[in-house]
Amino acid sequence: MAEPRTPAEVVARAARATDVADLDAAVADCFACPRLVDWREDVARTRRAAFRDQRYWGRPVPGFGDPAARIAILGLAPAAHGGNRTGRIFTGDRSGDVLFAALHRAGLANQPTSVAADDGLTLTDTRIFSAVRCAPPDNKPTPTERDTCAPWLHREVALVRPTLRVVVALGAFAWAAWWPTLRHVYGVRPPSPRPVFGHGAHWSGTAAPELFGCYHVSQQNTFTGRLTPGMLDDVFTRAKQVAGAD
C-alpha cells in the first residue's frame, strides 16, 4: 500500500488497519508531517556520538505490547535517540529504563530493561503507544502534527478496545490526547471542564476505560525526585487492580 503522505491519507490508512500488526506496519511507513520527517531522518543520519556505530530506525515508532491489553500506557512521542534509534517505544533511553523497571516490578514485563527491539522483552496485559509517532524537535510536536497523527492513536485504541480497561497517561500532553480519543473511539462526550492533569489524577466514565494520570518518566522528573519509583509503583498497582490484571 502507498505510504501516507497527507492527513487524509493517514485517516484512510488507519481506518483500513485490520489488526495491530497491520497498523504497526502502516505507522512505520508514514510521511505525513514534513517537519517531523526531516527531523527524524536528520537525527538518524547525524546520530549521537555514543551511538555512532549504530544504524538508527529513523521512522515513526509503532506501539508495542499485548494486542489484547487490559492496560494501555500513553506517552507523548518517541525520543530522538531512544525509540527513533531502536524502533521500539521507550527503548534505549533513560525514560525507558525507569518505565520498564516499574512494569517489571508490577509483573507486567518479563524483564526490567529495554535496550533493543530484539532484547526479548515482552509485556503482559499491557500495550504502550504514543500520541505522536515521530520524534519531534525539543519533544514538542505542533498542534497540526498532533492532529495529523491522531488517527493512528484512535485506530490503535479501537483495535484493543474489546479488552482495554485502563489507560495510564504519562504527562499532560498524553492526558489531553485522550479526550479526543474518547470521543472518536467510544462515542463518549469528554467531561466539561476537562479534569486537570496531575500525578494520581483519575477519571472514570461509563462505557470507556478508566484514566489515570502519571508524571512522565522523563529525566527532568526522575532525576529531580518529582517522580519516584514508589509513585510509579502506586499507579501501576491501581491500574492492575482496576483492569483485573492481578
Describe the protein in words.
The chain is of the alpha/beta class and 246 residues long. The protein has nine helices and six strands; from the N terminus they run αααββααβαβαββαα. It has helices at 7-16, 20-28, 34-46, 83-86, 94-105, 143-160, 172-186, 219-222, 229-243, and strands at 64-65, 71-75, 126-130, 166-170, 202-203, 210-214. It has a six-stranded mixed sheet, with helices on both faces. The longest helix is centred in the middle third of the chain and has 18 residues, at 143-160.
Short description:
The protein contains nine helices and six strands.
What percentage of amino acids are in beta strands?
5-15%
Helical/strand content category: alpha/beta
SS field, number of helical segments = 9
Order of helices and strands: HHHEEHHEHEHEEHH
Total beta strand runs:
6
